[in-house]
Amino acid sequence: MDLGGFLKSLTQGTQAYKTGEMDRLHDHLPKRKVVCVGDSTQNDPEAYGEICRKYGGWVKKVFVRKVTDVGEMDDEKNSPERFEKAFKDVPRDVWQTFEDPNELYAAFDALKGA
């Protein structure tokens, strides 16, 4: 088994785990707005897209880092098609991808004013 296959076997079920944790957070803080930050290595886009659809405006913003510095990452994990599918029916201004973590400073500053 290659490293990519090994990592995939370790992360199976992560979407269900993440959405379950977000469901619990929503149960405790339904009136708060949340910001989600994840990456493209596992199922963060799919999990956060599911939560955005489930709870409407509860998620104020989703940031997904496109991981490019891991040798076993395939192009499909960072493809625009993957993100469009994961965030289907989620307003485009609610989610964004980034590569450089420094991009988040300006994005969070913009959220403070919104």
In short:
By secondary structure, the protein is α/β, with parallel strands linked by helices. The protein is 47% helix and 15% strand.
Please give the structural blueprint.
Elements: H1 3-11, H2 14-28, E1 34-39, H3 44-55, E2 59-65, H4 80-86, E3 95-98, H5 103-113
Helix pairs in contact: 2-3, 3-4
Provide a descriptive summary of the structure in words.
The protein is built from 5 helices and 3 strands; from the N terminus they run H-H-E-H-E-H-E-H. It has helices at 3-11, 14-28, 44-55, 80-86, 103-113; strands at 34-39, 59-65, 95-98. The chain has a 3-stranded parallel sheet, with helices on both faces. Helix 2 runs parallel beside helix 3 and helix 3 runs parallel beside helix 4.
Features:
114 residues, alpha/beta, 15% strand
The strand count comes to: 3
Radius of gyration: 15 Å
Structural class designation:
alpha/beta
What is the N-to-C succession of helices and strands? HHEHEHEH
Sheet with the most strands, sense and barrel status? 3 strands, parallel
Q: Give me the side-by-side strand order of the main sheet.
A: 1-2-3
Shape: globular
- In whole angstroms, how far apart are the ends? 47 Å
Q: Can you give the helix content as a percent range? A: 40-55%
